[in-house]
Amino acid sequence: MHDNTHALPQTGEPMRHPARLGIALTLALATVGCSTAAGSGSRTGGEPTAPASDTAVSVTSCGHRMSFAEPPKRAVALDQTSTETLLELGLQDRMAGTANLKTKIPPQYEAAYADVPVIAPKIATGEQLRAAMPDFVVAGSADLYTGDRAGTRDELAALKVPAFVSAVDCPRQNPAGTTPFELLFSDYENLGRVFGAEERAGELAAAQRAAVARAGENTSKAPRGVDRPTVVYLYSVFNGMPYVAGRTGLPSEMSRIVGAKNAFDDVNEDWPEVSWEEVAERDPDVIVIGDLSERGRPGDSAAEKRAALTAHPVISRLAAVRDDRILEVPGIELDPSVRSVHALGLLADGMKDLGYVR
Question: Which phi and psi angles does 236 have, rounded to 5°?
Fold first, then answer.
């Protein structure tokens, strides 16, 4: 679950290099950590902090084992993915901050989101995070925990602030063969345990497992021997160059579920920059456009992407473009998040409408 703000060139978003915090602020944060999450902590090269009571809960996130004597009261979500997951779990009253939203919060979360402080409109610095006095931090992407961003997980653990990373962005720590969607569902269940919201987390995971099953219902009905249709996922067009889904991104798994194949499965990246000539060489059966209109950068909207396809002298001659075998989905839903099953459903329905899934 990568933060794609670093994958594409940024305009007007210089890398922040926060100054070291003063002793007073550090001590204040340590005090909050002790008072609101006593006994919590993550691995800092040794053993996790021992539980302070028999009711303590322990979870492991990307190699760090964390124990909680009581549910967090001042959680901070470092990105939109984590923010929406916590809101979906009904935890807005436990949130002390959010950061790095790429698009508008969808209507179903607006009311809950309205009361959550925004600690940073873009990527949060260590200073901004510590000023929120968190007792728990959640991120969908491990690269938000660096020294020149929010701080490393070990730095936060030293202040008794556990730092959770989505299992989707922790490939080396996950069992072989675990699908990205199952990793997402494990996030819901682990966060449910941390916050004492197991029932709601379990319901969410069950509902989304059912949605994934529905999306794959017709795959097995495709005739044997028929080649899987190929799909190019066009995420963005920046400076005239296309960014598409590679093998490690969620769209490859979405393709498999609906009986298709990601045309760029041979590229070991989430969202690689390629050339239009490479897209033409793959000659995909279907093109999926990720609509990022709300992000507002050049080439983000579905209309701009369609225009780029039809204006290109080679791409415009592809059958997928000539015959309008083009599907549109919300771009943010092509990265692993609580909303990704919605994009999967749109893909399944679109492939069926185009006659590729029976």
Answer: -155, 160
Work out whether strand 95-99 and strand 64-68 pair parallel, antiparallel, or are unpaired. unpaired
- Are 115 and 92 in contact by the 8 Å Cβ rule? The answer is yes
- Would you call 190 helix, strand, or coil by DSSP? helix
Over residues 104-128, the mean pLDDT reads 96
| Sign of the torsion formed by the C-alpha atoms of 68, 72, 78 and 84 | positive
Q: Look at the block and give the residue holding tokens 């999967």.
A: 344
310 touches 321 (CB < 8 A):
yes
pTM over 0.70: yes
Residue at 253: amino acid letter:
E
Token pair for 129: 């995070």
Task: Give the domain ranges of the chain.
Answer: 23-210, 219-353
CATH, domain 23-210, list 1.20.1090.10, 3.40.50.1980, 3.40.50.2000, 3.30.750.24: 3.40.50.1980
The class level of CATH for 219-353 reads alpha beta
Q: Which two tokens stand for residue 322?
A: 């000539």
Alpha helix (H) ranges present in 196-337?
198-215, 250-257, 276-282, 302-311, 319-322
* Res 180 pLDDT > 80: yes
Is the CB of residue 250 less than 8 Å from the CB of residue 336?
yes
For residue 275, give the nearest of 310, 239, 318, 251 by alpha carbon. Answer: 239
Task: Tell me the longest C-alpha to C-alpha distance in the chain.
Answer: 68
At 302-330, the pLDDT tens digits run 999 999 999 999 999 999 999 999 999 99
If you count DSSP H runs as helices and E runs as strands, how many of each does the chain have, helices first? 12, 12
